[in-house]
Amino acid sequence: MVPMTPSSQSPANPPARDPEVSAGCTSSSASASSWPRDAFDDVPEEGARVGAHRALDAPAPRVTRQIAGLLLAGAVALAVGAAAYLLGGNSEAAPGAASGASASPSQSQSQSQEATESATPTQEAEPTVEPDASVQVGVYNAAEVDGAAGTTAQDLSSAGWTVSATDDWGVGVEQSVVYYADDEEQAQAVADHLGIEQVASDEAVGYPIVVVIGSDLAEDGA
């Protein structure tokens, strides 16, 4: 067996490189060297770090904080607005309820007053009869009290009636009475003025109206 010599292991003339391959490698090296240097260009060739990639551009921390602040402010404003709306609705409803509650007693009082007025009949005032000076009046004392007829006659004259006579009745009576011939209206006016309850018709009396003073009127100061 013939031992191999160095000349037999490698060809004396190595094959020439393909010009196109050489040109491509040169172009790739030149193209790679045209990028600006960064941290990835300084990685040691024998380092333990593998699989490092260029990260996408992340937003700056300041911009992130601004966005978070805007979102938080919006949430706070929304919460405050909702609370104000709820509180405002309750405050507006409360006066209405209070007003309705305060109006109820007044309405009940008004209805009660109307019911009382409808139940109580209206009393019409009786027309006042003015004294007629043309009507002659006779006054008689039946109380057996001196001066009773004169005092009553003076009272009637001051009121506007014409007193034509004063005398004693002849017999004593307890209850005073006013007699009239035909003018009941004036007789009733005389009785009301003197406070006499009894008024009676009697055509036999000597004057249109005759007042008989009893002990009841004399005791009252007639």
UniProtKB/TrEMBL annotation:
UniProt region (Disordered), positions on chain: 1-46, 93-131
Low complexity composition-biased segments: 93-120
Keywords, sorted A to Z: Membrane, Transmembrane, Transmembrane helix
Transmembrane intervals: 67-87
Bias kind Polar residues: ranges: 1-11
All copies of domain LytR/CpsA/Psr regulator C-terminal, residue ranges: 134-216
Presence of keyword Transmembrane helix: yes
Keyword flag Cytoplasm: no
Family annotation (InterPro entries): LytR/CpsA/Psr_C
Superkingdom in the source lineage: Bacteria
Protein name: LytR family transcriptional regulator
The species this protein was found in: Kocuria soli
